[in-house]
Amino acid sequence: MKNVLMLAAVAASLTLSSQAHADGWKDKYKTIRVGVTSAENEKDRIARRAGFTAYLEKELGAKIEIFTAGNYDGVIQALASDQIEFAFLGSSAYAAAYTETNGGVEPLLASQEQDGSTGYYSVVTVRCDSGYKSVNDLKGKVLAFADPDSTSGYAVPYFNLVRQGYDPKTFFSAVPFSGSHETGVMAVLNKQFDAAATYINNETSGIPQRMETKGMIPKGQICRIWQSPEITNGPLTIRKNLPADLIRDVKTVIKAMPEKAPEAFKEMSGGANSTAKGYVDVDHQRYQWIIDMREWLSKQRRQG
Q: Helix H segments across the chain?
């Protein structure tokens, strides 16, 4: 009987020790900060993640704070300076964060659509009544890019337009940065820019479609005249210097979100226009081509 009691005590001790180890990160990280880039206005960025925040707080047992910045670089720098723990980034923003931190971040998950695809497309948008039907029609006009660290709003369209024979620096009269995807599209509607680069997931989901659903722009006013090859969906990106069990728990909880909190997942993924299905595991190699493309773009800028 004495031996049985001793074994039971040892087992209980091991269980408590295992549990303390499993939850060890919670002693230091009572608040987890999540970065979100500026694809849309700040109010909507935060509102669309209310359910996500509540879900993570329940599942992780820690307070969740959403971090936003006026541009993509603000979120990248927050990761680099340990001001936030993880962020949802586009492919180019991930590449920038990887370079800025000397490999100090890693991708965990990328979103997957209902049709099984894990990519999206950069598009050039114009007013439907502008008369512009192709990039050729934009010669001498103003094409706005979203942000220097945006994949679909800058890196991919710039790179592919050059490859197709359109040097943005000389073909267009100006190529300003609007600051965000929504701002660029809205400025096209208001005739401040002739065209703007943004993204779509498919025919029913993307920035223009979401803006129509939210009532920000009238339906049928914004048309697409150019589309890129498929872009790999950007990753959920986390700092490598975090405890391994924290990284594991964040990945597990977010990957389970579509099943455990479907409404919150749908709202975070685009609301009524969402065609997202869930998440798939990704690794750094999947984004190496984006890093190479950014290096090419940097070289072009240095050459003037």
A: 2-22, 42-47, 50-60, 72-80, 91-100, 156-163, 168-171, 181-189, 207-213, 244-260, 262-268, 288-302
